[in-house]
Amino acid sequence: MEPIFSSISNNAYDLYTLLRCIGFAQKARVQITPDGIRFSVEESRVMQGLVFLDKALFTTYTFNSTPTAGGSQTRNDHNPDDEEPAAYPQFLISLTALLETLQIFGISDTNSVPSFPNAAIQNTPAGAFTNPALLLGRSCTLQYSDVGSPFCITLSESGVTTTCELTTYESDDPTFGSAAGEVDIPLQRDAIVMKIIMRSSWLYNAISELDATTPTVLTISASSKKAPFLTLSSSGGPFSESSVTFSTENETIEGDTHYKSIGDNGPIASKRAKLAPAVTETFQVNPPSTMGPLVKESYRFALIRKAARAMAAATKVSIRGDIQGVLSLQFMIELGSDGKATSEAGVAGVAYPRNVSFVDFRFVPLVGQEDEQQEEEGGGR
């Protein structure tokens, strides 16, 4: 009987780079679909990390199953506009063991792991992450034979073949595998009040600066009406509160007509762009009238820290917030044709990356007394 799923990748580093971004959890939920493999991890149902390994990342990709009643309905996050999620086989595996397997020929070097000063990044050594050349040219085969069977990873390099069979588990959640077992933190795409796209390095640097004060709460404030337009603030730590305010373009007033130069026929008029942070390429803040002109939500800083690897590896980040305060940080990671993750998009005269993949983190906001308790606990340390 043919296996439910099998695939071959000639570049294990691509897979490792993406999965490493959600390596803060011990176990991952895996769902195999005709379009790729979806990995999701969570912490206490208030944070979730999502990675979708598109079948384009693989040299061959074979899927021999159809949606079953035993699979849970899960939206494919590589295509956020997909309105009809399908049900396909899913299971739990040890993410720690999977990452260790993918870098089994690597050299441990934990000192070079990109993270915030206070980030508690754990699980596997960073040899493959900091020594990508060791993973180039390595063939990686993934296979899932039947429901309940092990998830098999085979690595081949220079005539040496290593096979690892990871035990698959059912979730302790009684709704796991049922249509009611939806565990995704919901982001209301029809009620987005904030959407900001910027270079991921800007966000990484800002969070890293705030992390130096060992805070417990991160507050994001955004306004389309007046400065400061985008501010990240930290509080609750043993030190003073801190904030990072993103700069704005000078003299950019929406709707005003300005005369920038004199031509043959007189002054040349031009309308200036909407006032927005200079570091963003998209800045949309549209809160309902009941919220006022300012979008402001707070989150546990310890959870934001866990996105450190994705921030460091990504080129861009999309920051979205819905009317309920759920925060989505979607990171775009470019994977070059030489197997290395690139930090910048291609420019004229330089080859563009072969693949683009996304890693999505979602956070539930702190509310009311929970917010105050976080600050009090931080101040009492």
From TrEMBL:
Protein name stated in the entry: Uncharacterized protein
Species this protein is from: Talaromyces atroroseus
InterPro entries: Rad1_Rec1_Rad17
Annotated Gene Ontology cellular component terms: checkpoint clamp complex
Subcellular location: Nucleus
Keywords: DNA damage, DNA repair, Nucleus
UniProt cross-references to Gene3D superfamilies, sorted A to Z: 3.70.10.10
Keyword DNA repair on entry: yes
First-listed, main subcellular location of the protein, grouped into a coarse class: nucleus
GO biological process: DNA damage checkpoint signaling; DNA repair
The keyword DNA repair is annotated on this UniProt entry: yes
PANTHER family for the chain: CELL CYCLE CHECKPOINT PROTEIN RAD1 (PTHR10870:SF0)
Recorded family membership: Belongs to the rad1 family.
